[in-house]
Amino acid ABC transporter ATP-binding protein (Labrys neptuniae), 261 residues
Amino acid sequence: MTFQPKPPAKIMVQATGVRKSFGALEVLKGINLSVSNGQVMCLLGQSGSGKSTFLRCINHLERIDKGRIRVDGELIGYKEHKGYLQEMHEHEIARQRIHIGMVFQHFNLFPHMTVLQNIMEGPVGVKREPREDVRERAHAILKRVGLAEKVNAYPRQLSGGQQQRVAIARALAMQPKLILFDEPTSALDPELVSDVLDVMRDLAQSGMTMIVVTHEIAFAREVADHIVFMAGGEIIEEGKPGDVLGNPCHPQTQAFLSKVL
Ligand code: ADP
Ligand code: MG
């Protein structure tokens, strides 16, 4: 019997030396991180530490000043030519964003569309997929997030937790390579948080690559493969949940955890 060496996990997201300033304020001071295919990274840190800005850089909603971000090997937002970077055209950036789902704190659903229309809009309107295929997929995804009976509801008729699950369904319908979550449960009433976290846990178990900014430490401990702590635009500590959360080294990590735990 021959032993096949296990192929190394493919790197889905790789950030190297990412810097970003708003005017004189340097918000990202050289971020280096990578997320392997199928892994969940939780990004923790105090408000203002640069977490949202970093997520937004990954799909080029913010332009980075220095460094590189690659998703599935492809440089985001720029083309490299003889060592120089040239920003892509808007339609090329839009093509890259198709593969990168994003779920925000404030669900951002289209208020004038039903749940089904919200979910079908991207695949039909942006990816130009056949409507009937997308409809079938949308129903399956709604079932998966526990909202099969809400297909024809409007966002205002749903609770915050249900709206957020629609937002996750909408991201999934695009069949992304990666989903970015920016504090997906922070705007929810406490009793609605667990339904959303259950959906995210299910996604993680199904092998979706995820970067999750969250203050839900118990979720991070259970679901994350890797935890990254940011402070003042830098990564101050990272590692496995048991190590980082159980035995934090950096004083700012200790202070943060003592506040949220
Ligand atoms: P976090 O998500 O960790 O709370 P953010 O990435 O939202 O942090 O913000 C990091 C810093 O960048 C904050 O000081 C914030 O005020 C500033 N900032 C974020 N977006 C902008 C912007 N568009 N213009 C100017 N400053 C910004
Ligand atoms: Mg934020």
Remarks:
- Residues 22, 25, 27, 45, 47-53 surround adenosine-5'-diphosphate (ligand 1) (CB under 6 Å).
- The mean pLDDT is 95.
- The chain has nine helices and twelve strands.
- Residues 131-144 form the longest helix (14 residues).
